[in-house]
TrEMBL record:
The keyword Nucleus does not apply. Pfam families: LysE. It comes from Actinomadura namibiensis. It comes from the Bacteria. It is found in: Cell membrane. The chain crosses the membrane at residues 6-30, 42-70, 76-94, 115-137, 149-175. One of its GO terms (molecular function) is amino acid transmembrane transporter activity. One of its GO terms (cellular component) is plasma membrane. This is Threonine/homoserine/homoserine lactone efflux protein.
Amino acid sequence: MPLDSHLLMAFAVTTLIAMITPGPDMLFVLGCGMRGGPRAGLLATAGVATSEAVHVAVAAAGLVALFAAVPAAFTAVRVLGAAYLIYLGVQMIRHRGSGLDDAPERAGGMSGRRAYLNGLVTNLLNPKMVTFTLAFLPQFIDPGLGHVWLQFAVLGAVLIALEFVVDGLVGVLAGRIGGWLRHRRAAHRRIDTATGGLFIGLGVRLAAER
């Protein structure tokens, strides 16, 4: 076992508490599920989880030091992430209700591929996730046990699994509620408007954070 069992348990409990606290990832998955159904909610979660794997690898490699050495790099990525969220929100509001007449694979207004890519890109462009991962994971690593990379990998796997379970459940439940509402055109337009507003709000929040 490359990790201390007590540290691993503490990590799992702390991570679970952090996951069930509503944040940008959960709200994003919620919006995707409401607009595209359970499958879109799950695939949005898969996109977020994939980006989490990238963040863990980046944190382990120490690449986040770039943000400390070049503050402008952090600002640039933060602004790009915020702009992308706002763009998604504006597009949803502009084309609200259009998903009702799309092809079957786009039923509900959001294809699975689009939900996955949006979840992946949105989370990848959030530098706070990288800095959080770098600050959080090392607290539960014991260099004295050796195999530090393996410890990072185990903790990263636990983090991603909990992310998928918690946010995936949110996405599926939101998708089922959204699926019932999407049979009513007026309600569907309101879902798109609310989801677009949610994404715009997240983008503004990210851009305003220091």
